[in-house]
Amino acid sequence: MGDQWWFCLKHMAAEPDKGCPNKDRMGPYETREAAADALKTASDRNRKWAEQDKEWNNG
Fold first, then answer.
1. Tens digit of pLDDT for each residue in 1-54?
2. What residue spans carry the region label Disordered (predicted)?
3. Does residue 10 contact residue 24 with C-beta atoms inside 8 Å?
4. Looking at the DSSP assignment, which residues form a beta bridge with residue 26?
5. Among 4, 17, 19, 29, fewest CB within 10 Å belongs to which?
């Protein structure tokens, strides 16, 4: 497996494997850019799930 990147919730920044404890991080991600976008990715996924839940509950 190649290098992994994480998004640190304590420092609000992407960091390499050797960083803060995992309890303070989201990931792993394949690239630094993907880790930096972690909060946007999570927000987008949450929005999609909420839309699917509405469709399911109204169907």
1. 568 999 999 999 999 999 999 999 999 999 999 999 999 999 999 999 998 877
2. 37-59
3. yes
4. 7
5. 17
- Residue ranges of domains in the chain: 5-58
pLDDT of residue 37: 98
| CA–CA gap between residue 9 and residue 50 (Å, rounded) | 23
- Output the 3-class SS for 20-54: CCHHHEEEEECCHHHHHCHHHHHHHHHHHHHHHHH
Total-model pTM: 0.79
Tokens, residue 27: 């990931």
**Calpha distance 56→49 (Å, rounded):** 10
The CA–CA distances, whole Å, from 27 to 33, 34, 42, 52 equal: 12, 9, 11, 24
